[in-house]
Amino acid sequence: MSPGRPDFDAATAPASDHDPAAPPPLRLNIATGIGVIGRPLAIFLLATHAGTAALLSVVLSPTGNAAKAWAVGGFIVFDLLMAAWLMSQLCHQTATKIWRPLAEAFPGVAPAPDAVRTNFYLGFGIAWLGLGGLAHVAADGRHLHLLPTALLRRSGATPISVPLERLERPRFSWPMGPNVSIAGVPVRVPGWVRPLVGPAPAAGADAGAADGPAARAGT
Fold this sequence. Notes:
- It contains 5 helices and 9 strands.
- The protein is an alpha+beta fold and 219 residues long.
- The chain folds into 2 domains: 32-98; 107-217.
- The strands form 2 sheets. A 5-stranded antiparallel beta sheet has the order 3-2-9-8-7.
- The longest helix has 41 residues, at 65-105.
């Protein structure tokens, strides 16, 4: 757990707290995750395979070494551009289809100064989609905060703050899988968040208000 950088603009945070009425379950599941990565990944694979075929046709032809060197260089540049395009597309799709529904249901509020925090959490994931390193995770006595990194913020992602009483245990879980559920959405967060999640929303609310994450993380 490392000290966080100032990635949350308190001036844009909502002044009011969350509405006490629980939001309905969100329709974010494994199909959503496949939809996010499916089309961009298919285009990337088709383009890189076409580039590989073009490169091989030049390398295996009787052309001179200079032409082959240009072909190899062009292929490397093409691959780098395609990798950058794939990353931008994945971030955009993630921000709009995965992150935005949660941010609209649980708008961000500024974390408390003593919030426990893990930056660039590599195991982070939402709706069975691994988003390692694309979010910071923090928790104080009232909320679990999911803070997008610069890549996701450029795609329009905004902070998410989930009241602790809204955290539930996921229906299905395993060591490397989701370990909390937010409005029915499976989410993978650091292990120190697990003690904040009760067997039912009411139990989670009482526990979060009584102890707070800082005390529990140290036990």
